[in-house]
Write a structure and sequence with these properties.
six-stranded antiparallel beta sheet; 17 helices; alpha+beta
Length: 559
C-alpha cells in the first residue's frame, strides 16, 4: 500500500467517526495528530479523489460524509491492522461501560441480532430460563413492515467493564467452544485469540454445526460458546465480591474462576494471575441458529443504557455446576500442529517426487464424479488461483464414502525449509480477487486451534465459483529478507511445478493488504481447499479437511 493510499484510508477513518459533514481543516488537524503533515489544500485534493471514486460525498459548504462504498473500502483497506483493531474495539467497549450495580444504571455492552421468525423468541427464552446466558435482561423491537425482530442482549464484556470501573484490570485472552458434560463445564475444545484475528473470535464459532446449546439444555451435554480472561491474583477476592453482587441483580454468566496460577478448563493461567471463564452473550442466539432458523448475529456492537432493557423471564436457574480443577490436556495452536507436519515434508524439487502435506475431505461415493467435474471447471475458469492437483483416497471405515486429497499450502513451507530457507506460516485468510487482490479477513496460525480455512468454509464466507469478485482461500508466509534472492528463484520454480504462489512481496510491503514483521517479506499462496470449497458451494455434502496426511506428490492426479 502506497503512502497516498495510507492517507486516503486515514481520511476515510476520520470521516467514519463523524456524525455530520466534515471540512478539510478538521481533517487536516486530525491527520497531523496521526503523523501525516498535510495542509488543507492537499486534503482537498485527496477529497476530490475520494469523491470521484464514490467513497465520499460533498454536502454543500459543510464538508464531506463517507458513503457506504467508502465504508466498504475502509473495512477492506484496513484488514492489515484489523487483527489489532478487534482487540482495541473490545477495549473501547470495556472503557465505555459505566454501569453501577448499586444504582442499576449506566451503559452496558450489548449484542444486537436480527430474528426473522417470532417462534425464535420461544427458543431463546428457554435458554435464558436455564441460565445459559449472561443476563435475562434484553430488548425486543419488531419492525411491523418487514417482520424483522431486533433483539438486544447483554455481552459478557460488560463484566470486564464493571471490573475496570472498580479498579480491576482484566485482559481478554480467548473466545472459544466449551465442552459441557453432565451440566459441568469440562474443558475448552477450541479457542481463538482476541489479538490474532480480523473478526470477533466468537463470531468465528457461531455456526450451527459447532455449538450444541439446545443439547446442553435438554441433556446436560454439549458445546457452548465462552470467553476467557485474566485478572491479577491479588484482585481475586474483590472480583468475587463484585460478581456475587452482579448475580443478585441479574447479571451473571461466570462459569468458573481459577486458583492463582492454576489452569482453568484446559487453559493455562500464568503465575500471579487468575483465569475467569464467562459464557458467551450470544449463547441464546446460537440455540436459534442450531434449529435452522435464519438469524443475523452481531457481537459486542455497541453500548446501551441498562434501563432500556427488561428481563425476558423471572424464572432463571443456573443449570451449570461449578467446574473442578482437574488437569485437562493442553490445547495446541495451529502453528504448533503445522510445524510437526512441515517437518515431515520430503519433496525433491529436481525430481518432482516426494512427500507433501495433503488435506483429505470426505464425500459420498455417488457424488464423486460430479465433484470432480466441479473441481475441473473451477480450475479451468481460474487457473491462476486454483491448484489442479488431487488424489482419491479410501475412507478408513465407510465403504460408501471416499476421500479427496488436495495439496496443503504448508507443503511450501516444508519444501523451502528443506532447502535452507526459513518460512513461517503467518496467516490464513479470505482473499477477494479485485484488482489488485485484497485480503478481507485474516486469522493468525499462532492464535487459533482450528484451521482458519475450515472456519471460512463452514461460515459460507467464500465465493470461489458463485459471484464476482471471487473470494478464495489463501495463506501468508513470512520469510527472512536475507534469503530473498534465493527464495524468489525457488518459489518461481515451485509455482511452475504447480504449487500455487500468488504474490512475492518486498520488505515492509503489504502483500495483498497483509503485513509481516520487519526484515522479512511476505509470500501469498493459494489455499489447498479451494477446489473443495467449490464442491461445497455447489450443494454437495462434504466433510471438509477431515484429516491431514503425507502423500507422494508423484501419485497426485491433475485436473
Amino acid at each position: 500500500m502506497s503512502e497516498s493510499e495510507y492517507r486516503i484510508i486515514e481520511i476515510l477513518r476520520i470521516l467514519s467517526k463523524q456524525d455530520r459533514p466534515t471540512g478539510s481543516k478538521l481533517i487536516a488537524d486530525e491527520l497531523k495528530e496521526k503523523g501525516f503533515n498535510l495542509g488543507e489544500r492537499a486534503v482537498r485534493y485527496h477529497m476530490q479523489i475520494l469523491d470521484d471514486k464514490g467513497y465520499t460525498e460533498r454536502k454543500g459548504y459543510s464538508g464531506r460524509v463517507i458513503t457506504d462504498l467508502g465504508r466498504e473500502k475502509l473495512e477492506k483497506g484496513l484488514i492489515y491492522d484489523q487483527v489489532d483493531v478487534i482487540y482495541s474495539k473490545f477495549e473501547e467497549m470495556i472503557y465505555l461501560t459505566d454501569f453501577t450495580y448499586m444504582s442499576q444504571k449506566g451503559n452496558v455492552v450489548v449484542n444486537r441480532s436480527t430474528l426473522y421468525n417470532k417462534e425464535s423468541i420461544n427458543i431463546m427464552k428457554k435458554i435464558f430460563e436455564s441460565g445459559l446466558c449472561v443476563s435475562p435482561y434484553i430488548q425486543i423491537n419488531e419492525d411491523e413492515t418487514t417482520g424483522e425482530i431486533e433483539v438486544t442482549t447483554i455481552c459478557g464484556t460488560t463484566i470486564d467493564g464493571i471490573l475496570l470501573k472498580h479498579g480491576i484490570a482484566s485482559e481478554l485472552q480467548y473466545g472459544g467452544l466449551l465442552k459441557i458434560k453432565n451440566n459441568k463445564p469440562e474443558k475448552f475444545t477450541d479457542i481463538i485469540s482476541y489479538k490474532k484475528i480480523s473478526l470477533s473470535p466468537l463470531d468465528a464459532f457461531t455456526q450451527a454445526n459447532l455449538t450444541s446449546v439446545n443439547q446442553v439444555l435438554n441433556t446436560g451435554n454439549g458445546i457452548i460458546p465462552a470467553n476467557f480472561r485474566l485478572i491479577p491474583g491479588i484482585a481475586k477476592e474483590k472480583t468475587i465480591q463484585i460478581i456475587n453482587q452482579l448475580k443478585q441483580i441479574g447479571i451473571n454468566g461466570v462459569i468458573g474462576i481459577s486458583q492463582e496460577g492454576q489452569d482453568l478448563l484446559g487453559l493455562p493461567v500464568p503465575d500471579g494471575m487468575v483465569g475467569i471463564a464467562i459464557i458467551g452473550g450470544i449463547t441464546p442466539f446460537c440455540a436459534i441458529e442450531e434449529t435452522g432458523e435464519k438469524i443475523n448475529i452481531k457481537i459486542a456492537e455497541e453500548i446501551q443504557d441498562f434501563t432500556t432493557l427488561s428481563p425476558i423471564t423471572k424464572n432463571t436457574k443456573n443449570q451449570l455446576t461449578t467446574p473442578t480443577n482437574e488437569k485437562q490436556p493442553k490445547l495446541q495452536f495451529m502453528l504448533s500442529k503445522s510445524w510437526n507436519l512441515i517437518q515431515q515434508v520430503k519433496f525433491n524439487v529436481q525430481k518432482q517426487k516426494g512427500d507433501i502435506i495433503a488435506n483429505i475431505s470426505y464425500i459420498n461415493k455417488k457424488d464423486l464424479d460430479k465433484s470432480l467435474k466441479i473441481m475441473e471447471k473451477t480450475f479451468n475458469n481460474n487457473p491462476k488461483y486454483i491448484n489442479p492437483y488431487y488424489k482419491i483416497i479410501k475412507h478408513p471405515t465407510q465403504e460408501d464414502k471416499v476421500g479427496i486429497a488436495t495439496i496443503c499450502s504448508l507443503s511450501i513451507d516444508g519444501i523451502l525449509i528443506n532447502n535452507g530457507i526459513m518460512s513461517t506460516p503467518k496467516y490464513s485468510g479470505l482473499l477477494e480477487l479485485t484488482e489488485p487482490p485484497l485480503f478481507i479477513d485474516l486469522i493468525s496460525y499462532n492464535g487459533t486451534t482450528v484451521d482458519p480455512h475450515k472456519i471460512f468454509l463452514s461460515k459460507n464466507m467464500t465465493s470461489i465459483t458463485k459471484t464476482k469478485p471471487y473470494k478464495i482461500l489463501a495463506s501468508v508466509k513470512e520469510i527472512p529478507y536475507i534469503t530473498r534472492k534465493y527464495a524468489v528463484d525457488f518459489l518461481n520454480i515451485l509455482n511452475n511445478i504447480g504449487f500455487s504462489i500468488y504474490k512475492i512481496g518486498k520488505p515492509r510491503e503489504l502483500v495483498y493488504n497483509s503485513k509481516v514483521n520487519n526484515y522479512n517479506f511476505g509470500v501469498v499462496t493459494g489455499g489447498g481447499l479451494n477446489t473443495i470449497g467449490a464442491v461445497k458451494e455447489n450443494g454437495i455434502d462434504i466433510e471438509v479437511k477431515a484429516e491431514e496426511k503425507l502423500i507422494p506428490f508423484e501419485k497426485m492426479n491433475r485436473l
